[in-house]
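Figure 3 (text version): structure tokens given as input.
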């Protein structure tokens, strides 16, 4: 493997036993922060100032916030201590992708990936580079998808809104360029952490926070129907992605055992409901797994599932996961399937994965240790 692993930080982090995580700054969404500051008799503009320090300027402590009165900084340190996740290790892929192992205040570890890319015309100017961040929404994951490394790790806890949004700040700071796209495709099932996810998206999207356009933010789910429907009622133009991977119930149950009690019919109904409220096109993620979901029958079932829905299919080449029995299809098979779907009239993209040499690609996020 060609990568260069850097240990950034080696000391063990521990939350003071006096401060439960639920009282840290990271537990606050925009509205919550407004309420906290108003209870501390602060003028309205303080919320904006503090959000700017954390989410725009990447402050690591209240002390850095020079336009905030010292007395308030002290108060906040006591009632809502700031715990920006620390980079524990960083691995850089030959294609420029960087995978970060981040340590949270309670010692739990999560992974975040930064994927840079540039369009041909911008290569020389070093400007308008794209930087996509693949962020996590939970420590581990409960869904146990058979092809996914995170699934093998099990579930530990939900991430707080700040812990989700700050992943973007960390990557942005490390690359020295602004995040242009964000995908909730790291560890965890976003819709099993719905409320914190939505607060995090507000921090990411709002002008006072990171200011990233809603259309550039994608949330991917394995098919939590309540989450899909509720997401359709959110006015912001976020994109929804469904990790479908098979439109045949028995096959899906086998490769995504955590979704067994969510039928494809219910998922399809939820997508229709989502579309009827949001009118936003849905991305369907379909991993190509040799001998599992790549036959004519599988692709016809996929076409049937998509019929009448406004969707875009992303075909994904399976990435290698250690000890996994699953293998990717050949490039020829992938191209044939892509062609067949397009002929059927479905917009389809064959996605090439980035960062696979550092296990930083889709489905490869599994921290060697989950807690220090
Ligand atoms: N739980 C959510 C979010 C995680 S997204 C979801 O299921 O959508 C992770 C994405 O990576 C999903 O589309 C998932 O199906 C995909 N993935 C998982 N394992 C993979 C692998 N081995 N190779 C390529 N993609 C994989």
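Below: residues designed for each position.
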């Amino acid at each position: 493997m060609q990568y260069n692993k850097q240990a950034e930080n080696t000391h063990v982090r521990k939350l003071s036993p006096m401060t439960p995580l639920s009282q840290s700054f990271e537990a606050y969404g925009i509205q919550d922060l407004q309420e906290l500051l108003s209870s501390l008799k602060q003028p309205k503009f303080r919320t904006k100032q503090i959000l700017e320090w954390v989410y725009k300027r990447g402050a690591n402590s209240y002390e850095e916030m020079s336009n905030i009165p010292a007395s308030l900084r002290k108060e906040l340190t006591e009632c809502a201590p700031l715990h920006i996740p620390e980079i524990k290790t960083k691995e850089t892929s030959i294609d420029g992708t960087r995978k970060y192992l981040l340590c949270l205040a309670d010692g739990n570890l999560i992974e975040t990936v930064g994927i840079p890319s540039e369009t041909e015309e911008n290569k020389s100017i070093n400007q308008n580079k794209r930087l996509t961040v693949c962020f996590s929404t939970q420590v581990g994951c409960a869904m146990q998808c058979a092809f996914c490394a995170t699934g093998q790790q099990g579930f530990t806890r939900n991430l707080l809104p700040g812990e989700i949004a700050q992943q973007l700040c960390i990557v942005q700071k490390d690359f020295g360029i602004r995040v242009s796209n964000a995908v909730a495709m790291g560890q965890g099932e976003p819709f099993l952490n719905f409320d914190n996810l939505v607060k995090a998206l507000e921090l990411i999207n709002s002008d006072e926070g990171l200011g990233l356009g809603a259309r550039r933010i994608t949330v991917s789910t394995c098919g939590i129907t309540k989450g899909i429907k509720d997401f359709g009622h959110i006015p912001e133009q976020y994109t929804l992605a469904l990790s479908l991977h098979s439109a045949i119930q028995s096959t899906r149950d086998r490769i995504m055992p955590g979704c067994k009690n969510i039928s494809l019919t219910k998922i399809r109904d939820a997508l229709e409901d989502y579309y009827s409220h949001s009118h936003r096109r849905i991305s369907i993620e379909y991993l190509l797994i040799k001998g599992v979901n790549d036959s004519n029958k599988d692709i016809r079932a996929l076409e049937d599932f998509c019929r009448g829905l406004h969707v875009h299919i992303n075909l994904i080449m399976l990435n290698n996961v250690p000890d996994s029995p699953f293998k990717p299809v050949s490039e020829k098979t992938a191209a044939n399937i892509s062609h067949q779907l397009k002929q059927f009239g479905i917009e389809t993209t064959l996605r090439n994965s980035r960062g696979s040499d550092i296990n930083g690609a889709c489905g490869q996020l599994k921290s060697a240790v989950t807690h220090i």
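Residues 143, 147-148, 185, 189, 220-222, 243, 285, 287, 316, 318-319, 321, 362-363 surround S-adenosyl-L-homocysteine (CB under 6 Å).
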